[in-house]
Amino acid sequence: MTYVEPYQPDVLAARYELPGAAMDRLSTLVAALTGVRNNARPKVADALTGLELEEVRNASRMADLGTGMHCPGLVLAAVLPDTEVTLVEKNPLRCLFLERTARSMRLANVEVVEGSVLDWTEGRATCDLVTSRAAAPVPTLLEWAAPLLVPGGSFVAWVGPEHADDVAPAAADAAAALGLRRTAVHRTTIVDSRERDLHVFEKTGAAGTAAGTDVEPRTDAAIAVASLALEWQAGLDQAEREELALLADRLGAHRFLRESRRLMRELRRRGR
Question: What is the CATH topology of the domain spanning 9-213?
Answer without folding.
Answer: Rossmann fold (3.40.50)
